[in-house]
Amino acid sequence: MGSVTDGGDGREAAMWADAHNHLQDPRLRGHLASGGGYPCIVNATHEEDWEDVLAITAEEPVRRAALGIHPWYADEARTGWDERLGLALEANPSAGIGECGLDSKAGSVALEKQMPVFTRQLRLARELDRSVTIHLTGAWGALLDALDREPPPRRWLMHSFNGSPEIAERLAAMGACFSISGRAMHPSGEKIFRSFRAIPAERILVETDAPNQPPPALNVGRELPDGLNAPENLALIGEAVAGRLGFDPACFARITMRNFACFAGVHGGREQLRAKDEMMDSR
After folding, report:
1. Cis, bond preceding 214 (omega within 30 deg of 0)
2. All domains in the chain, ordered by first residue
3. For residues 283 and 279, what is the distance between their CA atoms, to the nearest angstrom?
4. pTM of the full predicted structure?
5. CA 131 to CA 127: how far, in whole Å?
6. What average pLDDT does range 77-94 have in this prediction?
């Protein structure tokens, strides 16, 4: 299973959690490995795939659903989408909201159309006490303005975070968690690691964003057609990130698993699940 690092030479085997993927994506159809599940959050992108996300997460109890509207599809949101999202969340108590956010490079979708869809999802997450996963490309100023007007819920994640260390520190002070993906392993990714070195260890998660953002070939355990990213690449991404951040991989897997459990609402809140002593010893 791709989420397990094989100890092999006597090293401790590590179990990883995928903070963000799109297993419902039609491009992965026929390519999902069988043989058991692993902790992950499967994110919707528009209303039409909510049912698919709920179905694929129902297959494995360790999978969690996130339902929402991605900024790329904000202009396609049909009247009453927020009411239907609220009903779907109430019917699925473990589901979070995602993937939502802002994207200044989203082509024809203006930020003016994205913003009300995004802030409504923030408000719904806060009202229902659900986690929210945020996509952000380019529009950092707009994000900060939105968070000032519409505070985030207790649990919120900046997925595949690529902002500056200063932005990371500001968002961390507001309670954000941050996930790192295989894109950081490409030559241009050093700036991402600079930011993650400024983030408290108890706020870091690992993700694949499968089938998107494939890591470089060195960190690919399973290849898919057309250069797609396989969910099974999670362990190799996690190990590579651990090394770049100065962690023992098995320890980093435990840390990020606990952070995942906290963010996904498993086993209680952050205070109960923090492993600060372990984190400090592993740096």
Report:
1. no
2. 37-282 (3.20.20.140)
3. 6
4. 0.89
5. 11
6. 97
